[in-house]
Design brief:
121 residues; mainly alpha; 4 helices
Amino acid sequence: MLRTLGAVSHGIIDYLMVIILIIGPRVAGFAGSRQAVFCYLLAAVHLAMTLLTRFPLGAMKIIGFPLHGAIEALVSILLIVLPWLANFFRGVNSRNFFIAIGVLIGLIALLTNFRGRAGTS
């Protein structure tokens, strides 16, 4: 697989993902549900992980960029199966949202060069 995304591009996408996770429940029509609460918690964790990552857009640079990538790969798989694990499968909008976000995070992880020079985009 061609790893075309560098650290800066990945960081920008991470911050955009936080916004998507915050506004997603309202846009997808499941605001006010426990699925929405999970989205907000995931947004907070994703923001914290991005801020703590050792890459150009990280603020505290504690988590290594390769570890960041491994965590995102694992989270992507968990998000895809989460609707069934957490009994979200009955809400079609939330189920589809979590599967789509999981696939998107997985694709971003596959396209990112986590071992390349940290200052490249």
